[in-house]
Amino acid sequence: MTKDAYRAMIHHFHKGIYDISFPTTKLQIIEKAGTRMIKVDYGKKMTIKSFVEAMPLDSYSSAAEFYCALLASLSK
After folding, report:
1. Which residue in 45, 48, 66, 68 could disulfide with 60, CB within 3.0 to 4.6 Å?
2. CB 33 within 8 A of CB 16
3. What is the dihedral of CA 63, 57, 40, 20, to 10 degrees?
4. What DSSP character marks residue 67?
5. Where is 60: in which H helix or E strand?
């Protein structure tokens, strides 16, 4: 039996970048929020930086563009 997916990760991620405004760059996100820890699974936390570094673009014109890139990078 496998456990259910941790569905709240994106919610925690969103809360972790509460003070980021768009447009922004990958570097600005890392500098401002990169060391913040977010809950990504049952009993597991990771830094925002670990996700943002893996994202494909260096800048994001909107939150929608950012979250689309985040979701795309999670599927790899």
Report:
1. 66
2. yes
3. -40
4. H
5. strand 59-60
Residue type, 25: T
Taking a C-beta distance cutoff of 8 angstroms, is the pair 66, 41 a contact?
Answer: no
Tell me the DSSP string of 13-58: HHHHTTT--SSEEHHHHHHHHTT-EEEEETTEEEEHHHHHTTSS-S
1-34 pLDDT, tens per residue? 456 667 889 999 999 999 999 999 999 999 999 9
What residue spans define the domains of the chain? 9-71
Tokens representing 51 are: 């996700």
